[in-house]
Amino acid sequence: MVMTKMPVLFVGHGSPMNALDKNPFTEGLHQLAGKIPRPQAILAVSAHWETTGTQILSAANPQTIHDFYGFPKALFDIRYPAPGAPELAAETQKLVGGDAILTEKWGYDHGTWSILLHMYPEANIPVYQLSLDVKKDPKAHVEIGRKLQALREKGVLILGSGNIVHNLRLINWKDQKAVYPWAKEFDLKVKAALENREDYKLMYLDENQEADRLSVPSADHYLPLLYCYGASTPEDSISYPYEGYELGSLSMRSVLWK
């Protein structure tokens, strides 16, 4: 079988409530699935799986993890019963090398299933996850992404799930349609760096700049973008299936390389 080279997709996932909501963002995810080749498998890099050392989910039937609290029961009732991909997990471990290990002690966290629920609601495509090693520097995360490029030739969709701008402390509950100027500034700055493939600007944020400091108060939601950037190539075209903001301090930008 000749495999179609798969694109790379980064999605700003926002609130877990997007799993239940029908809105322009979730409708866009549903439509996007029909605009890209159907994957043989999906490798998700989620903001919500941080580890010491790189770990790769190798379970044959991963559990659905509800890694949040204070939300409606309907959200906790969701299950995403997609099969795992143990053989691909082992192959990915070899590609990543170094300290990467296989584990069955995880599942699909909401950074993964809240997106796939809209893209592939039948849950019939194998899915596995790769963790964020909190000990690695930004360049190392990009380098792992580059090692994942070979998976695209095997029909694997590399899916990063986080948010370019993610500051929960500064959420604007009073005017949810307003956007902080610093949030828009950083979002557009990252967009330009992606288009110009400016590795250094993407990897090393400027703590002296308010937009950088407030947009990425912790690295977890930003790092999945670096994996996707690493897995992309200069030959790929870049587009934005969805652009927008939530609650003033979350960028919902999605990025597609193909």
List keywords for this structure.
alpha/beta, 14 strands, globular, two-stranded parallel sheet
In summary, what is this structure?
The protein has 258 residues and is an alpha/beta fold. It is 33% helix and 17% strand.
| Helix and strand composition category | alpha/beta
- Total strands: 14
Oligomer: single chain
- Note the run of SSEs as H and E: EHEEEEHHEEHEEHHEHHHHEEEE
Give, in spatial order, the strands making up the sheet with the most strands: 8-2-10-1-14-11
Outline: globular
* Average pLDDT: 95
Helix content: 25-40%
- Helical stretch tally: 10
Reported for the largest beta sheet, the result is: 6 strands, mixed
Strand fraction equals 15-25%
Please mark out the parts with pLDDT under 50 across 5 or more consecutive residues, or reply none. Answer: none
Radius of gyration: 17 Å
N-C termini distance:
20 Å
Q: How is the secondary structure organized here?
A:
Blueprint: E1 8-12, H1 24-33, E2 41-46, E3 50-51, E4 55-57, E5 63-64, H2 73-76, H3 86-96, E6 101-103, E7 107-108, H4 110-119, E8 127-129, E9 132-133, H5 138-147, H6 149-152, E10 156-162, H7 181-196, H8 199-203, H9 210-215, H10 223-231, E11 238-239, E12 245-246, E13 250-251, E14 255-257
Parallel strand pairs: 1-10, 2-8, 2-10, 3-9, 4-6, 5-7
Antiparallel strand pairs: 1-14, 11-14, 12-13
Helix pairs in contact: 1-4, 5-10
Explain the overall architecture.
- The protein has 258 residues and is α/β, with parallel strands linked by helices.
- It has ten helices and 14 strands.
- The chain has helices at residues 24-33, 73-76, 86-96, 110-119, 138-147, 149-152, 181-196, 199-203, 210-215, 223-231, and strands spanning 8-12, 41-46, 50-51, 55-57, 63-64, 101-103, 107-108, 127-129, 132-133, 156-162, 238-239, 245-246, 250-251, 255-257.
- A hairpin with a 3-residue loop joins strand 12 and strand 13 (250-251).
- It is globular.
- The relative contact order is 0.23.
